[in-house]
Design a protein that fits this description.
8-stranded mixed beta sheet, 6-stranded parallel beta sheet, alpha/beta, single chain, globular
Amino acid sequence: MRRPRVTMLLENDLYPEDIRVRDEAHSLVDGGYDVRVIAPRGTGQARKAQVDGVTVERYWLPMSHGGGIAGLLAEYVVAHVQLFIRGMRSLLRETDFLHSHNPPDTLFPLAIAARRLHRRFVFDEHDLFPSLFEQRFGHGLLWQIADFANKMMIRNADIVLVTNGTHLEHARGRLRSGSKLILVRNGPRQSTVSGRRSTTRPGRLADPKLLYVGALEPQDGVDQLPEILERLVVNHGLTGVRLTVAGWGSELEALRSDFASRGLLHRVRLLGRTPHADVLRLIAGADICVDPAPCTPFNHGTTMVKISEYLALGRPTVSYALRETANTAAGAASLVPCDDLGAFVRRVAELARSDEARADLHRRAISRAPDLVWEHQAASLVDAYDDVARRNGLKPA
């Protein structure tokens, strides 16, 4: 009997750079499924490739990186043409499961087509699409379209995968009877963090090594990084402080310009898009990791992958008190009052001056780490697939 076939649709990142998609695809391959990922093509990437047992098919996409409504619409129009054609071809020819990663949520016609063709549809909700549009464009027509699309994706899915409790409650009220709703959190693989953890540097640090990893988009609060760095130097006397930014997005050049205007460029490394193995090495070598994402409804409901990775590698971490960040950290990170930039800077400075405070956060993070790794989540994903496969006469190899 052949292996059940899974086709994954990805729009908002590359493969295998999207860590959640990569880990899910690899876990399904290990579970006996034949997996193909359709994703945008990055610079230097082949149109077709085999990546650790996963077949990858790539398409051209003018990614907007959050730069405004015109760029976003252009990106979505091209992506929809590509993904609709390739998704329908998969449904008509070969696939047993069509697995759509959001955003966007506007591929619901493929979900409807999958049901009509007696295929199974999986909706993987990385972000709350309506909240993302509300944060960027307000509570108007675009939000209404996004909210409708989200309802249609959930109602027409056989399996809905979510990353946290906020998403779980949101999806529960929109789920079709008989569909499966599964919590699959983000987290690093145990094999990628084992052996990388380091202890904290001893003593009072006048030259703390700070690190931010992740997207550089308006919702991520990265525009605060230049002021954070400036206050640490001017107000707190950390004359040797250095900041590494490993990320890519629409705010990159604005960040570079702001650092330059404050005379801080010599204190900063802006690495752009960075291979994941290098990201983990950077985290392991940092003194303090930061996440300045502001306390918006979207961010309160988002599980930040960076937080799991910071903690899994035992790094002292400072963030605003976002609801899902607090759930992920479970007391292992230093959370400051929402949008209080002064408190954020003071906490970073306090950690730089106190090896005891850094060591305490390190111990808490190491204690929390076993609950954050991907292996705890992979079983839930594969079990959900296996249950639906068996009910439809399919048997994983």
